Amino acid sequence: MPPSPPEAPEAPEAPADQTARPTGGAPATRPTADDRAAPPAPAATPSYRRLFALPGARAFTVGNLVARLPMGMFGVSAVVMIAGARDSYALAGAVTATGLAATAVTAPWIARLVDRHGQARVAVPATVCAVLGSLALVLCVRCDAPDWTLFAAYAATATTPNTGGMSRARWSHLLRLDPAALHTANSFEQAADELCFMLGPVLAAFLTGTFFPEAGTLTGAVLLLTGVLLFAAQRATEPPPRPRGRAKAPLRAPGIPAQLAVCVAMGAVFGSLEVVTVAFADAHGHRSAAGVALGLQAAGSCAAGLVYGALRPGGPAERRLPWCVAAMTALMTLPLLAAALTGSLPVLAGALLVAGTATAPTMITNMTLVQRRTPEGRLNEGMTLAVTGLLAGIACGSATGGWTVQHLTPTTGYAVPATAAATALLLSLAGRRRRA
Predict the structure, then answer these.
(1) Which terminus of the chain has a smaller tally of CB atoms within 10 A, N or C?
(2) Distance CA 252, CA 268 (A)
(3) What is the pLDDT of residue 244?
(4) To 10 degrees, the CA torsion angle through 328, 332, 333, 338?
(5) What residues contact residue 173 under an 8 Å CB cut-off, 6+ apart?
(6) Ordered alpha helix ranges (H), 237-332
(7) Distance in angstroms (rounded) separating the CA atoms of residues 139 and 419
(8) Distance, first Cα to last Cα, the chain
(9) Signal peptide position in this chain (predicted)?
(10) Considering the domain 245-436 in this protein, what is its CATH number?
């Protein structure tokens, strides 16, 4: 996606967890832990090499990537496992939908505890609870337990901590004096999200198809626990806990509700695109090719995110967001045109690859605004609310896309993500006007 037109650079806003610094003339004080952890003076040109040269950055990133990969595995693994054992995709879909709803309720609460008590103290027991829920689901399926036990077991996995949000919180803590480097870090995190959600379903399908139906869920549980333990062990880069103070809840912070509305609309883009692409490939007799097409869309987003992170886009994020969403809206018309004019799956896959290049820059810019507008000490909660908004949008988009392809045609279904992107554009413009 092309960067927005050059504008006068804004003064960098203080990130949510920046601590107070003594002004000139103040007596010297003993450095605090935050002061000792402060990064060196900002580099003129941020790069990924400089990013991972920070002490401890590589270690917590490796652990977080291991923990994040299962996020793209659990849904596919559960559907394959339950549908194979109970011969009901309706049951499998209902179970996973219940888990999604439970996550929407539980995730912000877990994130609030992380902010208040620290990542290691909360993330590890929350992960253990989620892993036990996954193991209980496997046992219930294997032992032919009543259907209601599947819902209860999968709902327990909703305590899975937002590992991506915790990683972004660490970058925000380490790079609080260097907004340009923080932009690069946020870009890497978004590219990592795309990579994990691109590889996760492929790995889950391989494990469940090659070995046994429960292999995907079991492997995901092991990876999640291992990754969180590795991540939590890196205490030197962990942001300090913020005991409950007078900071207002993120939902009441200026600008946050508008950003969450944009997240919901963008989630609808992703959810509908997935369902419609599967239906389109199935209608052309190549359902297995849907994964490849969606993988190309994620690959385009991943590549664009890395490139975007290496650049220094001009102008404040508030002004860049509508431009990014406008580019995503324009490019989301390409799959609709490819499906309507050619009906060719390879052409559609190419259109999805190009359309994906606008996804990561848009998500990076939106998440940057969420970080900046979240009250001090509530960063994990704010980031998790954004993810919850995305999940809610994905659920709505999936339902709308499924209804469209069922009652109309798969080709017409590609109008749903385009419409959702246009809605996100209107919401971003409205949010900017309210803050003007």
Answers:
(1) C
(2) 24
(3) 63
(4) 140
(5) 17, 37, 237, 238, 239
(6) 256-283, 289-310, 317-331
(7) 42
(8) 25
(9) none
(10) 1.20.1250.20
| Closest by Cα among 256, 289, 288 to 383 | 256
pLDDT at 68: 92
One-character DSSP codes across 355-399: HHTTHHHHHHHHHHHHHHHSPTT-HHHHHHHHHHHHHHHHHHHHH
12-21 core/surface letters (b: 16 or more CB in 10 A; e: else) = eeebbbeeee
The 8 Å CB, 24+ separation contacts for 48-52 are 48/184, 48/188, 48/306, 48/309, 48/310, 50/181, 51/181, 51/184, 51/185, 51/188
What per-residue string of b and e applies to 208-221 under the rule 16 or more CB within 10 Å gives b? beeeebbbbbbbbb
Domain with CATH 1.20.1250.20 in the chain: 58-241, 245-436
Distance CA 377, CA 379 (A): 6
Pairwise CA distance, residues 50 & 268, whole Å: 36
Higher-pLDDT residue of 270, 42: 270
pLDDT tens-digit series, residues 261-319: 999 999 889 888 888 887 888 888 876 677 788 888 888 888 888 888 888 777 788 88
Per CATH, the number for 58-241 is 1.20.1250.20
361-406 per-position pLDDT tens digit? 998 888 888 888 888 777 778 888 888 888 888 878 877 888 888 8
Q: Is the dihedral angle over the CA atoms 412, 414, 418, 424 positive or is it negative?
A: positive
- How many other CB atoms sit within 10 Å of the CB of residue 433? 9
Which of 59-63, 199-203, 333-337 bottoms out in mean pLDDT, i.e. has the lowest? Answer: 199-203
Name the average pLDDT for the chain: 82
pLDDT tens digits, one per residue of 114-148: 988 999 999 999 999 999 999 999 999 999 999 99
Indicate the pTM of the whole model: 0.73
